[in-house]
Amino acid sequence: MSDYRTENCHLFGHPEIVLPFTGAPPDPLWLLQTLEEMVASGSVFKHGQAVEICGGTCKIHGRENGDMELRQPDMTIIPIQWIPGMDQPVRMAVLQMHVCRLLGSPLEYVRLDQAVQISAAALAGATSFTMSRETPNGRVAGWTITAAEDDTSALQLMSVFEAIAMLPKIVAFLALSPPATARMHTDGRLEAMHGDKTADSDTDEFLHRIASVVWEPVKIHFSRPAGTGTGGEAEAQRPKWWTTGIVKLRKLLS
To answer: How many domains does the chain have?
Structure first.
């Protein structure tokens, strides 16, 4: 584990903030600067606080030496467990920033507790996907994800958290502002469109690297919270105590 630490938060009477990484970080300096700017503008971070950083939800954890550290969500279990490290949120943010710069799109992040529409065929393990974004509406992020352009199977609402776990490569495109479209073809090629600009993995090295990585869907384990039964995990389907429709992750972040 390697730590990257802010240097100027103490000037505003605030503990320094640490970003821990288990692997080689993809340039975390921009995030350190963002945190320092937030503190300078009056933001105060406290132990146990959930914070939205560049589209990712993280949690503040106090250290014995007085510093604060950011922790990332474990994307494999509900309710969310917070684990040391910031590798995942920073990599997600770097992917999204690159794609938005490539297509000249403003960054319009989604939150883990927002919902996307996703088709039954896409959920059934399709080898391709098409995702398009319209104007967000409250808890609905505006994204519709189907197995292909001509997919007419039934749509359902699903949390961004779950959608990322099931279709990991959608992460790169989630911050594109509407109207936007992205596709993964059956041969693994990626392409994205925003306005009059188009990019694909045949011509962009960054998208090529994403396309060439085999990202397996993550199986989410539903751990039963206290007071809801005998304990254990339900993996085949959401248990009765789990909210259907839009997954209300906001309650699980507290």
So the answer is: 2
Structure tokens at 67: 């510093």
For residue 139, give the nearest of 119, 106, 155, 117 by alpha carbon: 117
Position 42 pLDDT exceeds 60? yes
| Domain membership of residue 48 as a residue range | 2-86
Please, are residues 61 and 68 in contact by the beta-carbon 8 Å criterion?
yes
> Phi and psi for 159 in degrees, rounded to 5?
-65, 150
Q: Whole-model pTM?
A: 0.79
CA distance 228 to 212: 42
Residues 199 and 140 placed together within one structural domain of the fold: yes
> Do 163 and 79 belong together in one domain?
no
User: Do residues 143 and 176 share a domain?
Assistant: yes
**Domain boundary at 86, 116, 138, which?**
86
pLDDT tens per residue across span 149-199: 778 889 999 989 889 888 888 999 999 999 999 999 999 999 999 999 999
Q: Say yes or no: 191 and 132 in one domain.
A: yes
- pLDDT tens-digit series, residues 45-81: 999 998 887 677 899 999 999 999 999 988 887 777 8
Q: Which H/E stretch holds residue 168?
A: none
In which order are the strands placed within the sheet that holds 140-146? 155-159, 115-119, 140-146, 129-133, 180-184, 190-194, 197-200
